[in-house]
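User: Hey, my collaborator sent me this sequence without any context and asked if I could get a structure. I don't really work with proteins. Can you help?
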Amino acid sequence: MDLIDVVNEQDEVISSNARKKIHKLGLLHREIHVWFFDENKNIFFQKRGLLKNSPGLLDASVGGHVDSGEFYEEAAVREIKEEVGIKITQQDLFLLKKFKGFYQHNNKKNNFIRSIFIYKIPVTELKAQESSDKNGGFEKISLKDLSKIIKTTNFKFLKFILEDEIPIVLDYLNSN
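Assistant: No problem. I've predicted the 3D structure and written it out in structure-token form, which is a compact way to encode the shape of the chain:
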């Protein structure tokens, strides 16, 4: 059973519970997203697998829940290792923003506080990922192309990614 900490509005742990129950009840919990970019400011989106909600749409490079007793940075390092097979340290991550959000899909209520990190990935580290039912691989989009794409269409992206996170990532990459 995946235990996840339940937090209050100040992001203080108040209990822990099973992931399924947290989403069924809409309990506030912690999540992370990590955005990969390379030296040319290409952004790597993970394509959602066929058995996931919103299959085929583009999502953050890596995402996941913060396990019970874990800190955001620890969860990000763990998720990168699990999803992509890259071993990094917490010092390799840069925190862009932490925010509270909520969305509902069918009976799943996702009520979260999410830390968004960015990671400059050496090109050699991101091996071609095999598509699977859980992970549809990665799509690389240049900073310039992404700015154009989001103005003309939103069909490729998860709605909350398009509205809440891509603007933050674009602001960071455009100013650095």
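In plain terms: Residues 159-175 form the longest helix (17 residues). You can pass these tokens on to your collaborator as they are.
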